[in-house]
Design brief:
- Four copies of one chain form a homotetramer.
- Chain A contains three helices and no strands.
- The first copy, chain A, is elongated, with a radius of gyration of 17 Å.
- By secondary structure, chain A is an all-alpha fold.
- Chains in contact: A-B, A-D, B-C, C-D.
- Chains A and D meet through helix 2 and helix 3 of A and helix 2 and helix 3 of D.
Chain lengths: ~90, ~90, ~90, ~90
């Protein structure tokens, strides 16, 4: 992972982690379930943004290197798999 | 939230939080991006399981109470909204 | 399903079906795969909108009737299942 | 799109289209909304399978050609975009 992608991904993972602490407190303080659910959705969206960032880095570095290096596999198979795994 | 749903939800949120710490370490140690991505998907799936649990509790308690109490709104509107928000 | 939900759902299903015919033609005419993919995403989003509509109708009729009739099951179990099935 | 991907994608699009006709009949015959919803989910999953197939073909042909041809853009940008568009 390049330096910038790494720094930004870590920042977002830390944000999601802090958000989860907030959700834990909400549950402990018996907040309304619908509000807790919406916060959990927000954490998942934050993770998806971190993932989009990491994927972009992966495409521009690992994928380009593998293909220009004449070894398109396993990178292309992994990419196809990531697209399918991402939302199931 | 009933006692059992709360305990189990907290357990799952704590699990997701620990998992995020693992992802942070993976990024810091420069793990392969594809492996980091798959771990992030796993955290999201863990959150979805916690959400399913909380929604089930919400349906059997808040929703039933609101409808038998003759006040189907805002509960039904919220349910429709949750359904749409859950995956976008 | 109430009359209005039915009419609007049929309209949206017909729209999705016409859209699929467009995708078939795109593939036959060898359109760029990325453009075909985006159109397929659009059909899925159209179906999701039809689903949101039908769910809303289901909540306000079947679910309310079942709960006020003192028979919350199987309706609540089905709802929890729908939320999980919707995006996997 | 290569010949095989095209044929198989067309087969799956045709299947989804037939399935939509079935859903239209279910709505017209006033089937239970939950059953209609589950069928709509099944159509979306069929489309996702066609998409996975087309993406795989895209990766192995257009993406490899663009990168070995020294023109990684716009192909990489499109891939990142598809990944984000696929599920929202």
């Amino acid at each position: 992972m390049d330096q910038e992608t790494r720094a930004e991904s870590l920042r977002r993972i830390a944000y999601a982690r802090g958000h989860l602490d907030g959700i834990r407190r909400m549950i402990e303080e018996d907040s309304y379930c619908v509000d807790v659910l919406k916060q959990s959705y927000a954490v998942r969206r934050a993770l998806e943004k971190a993932e989009a960032l990491m994927l972009r880095g992966h495409l521009h570095h690992c994928v380009v290197d593998a293909i220009t290096g004449g070894e398109p596999e396993p990178v292309l198979g992994e990419l196809a798999e990531l697209y399918q795994l991402a939302h199931r």
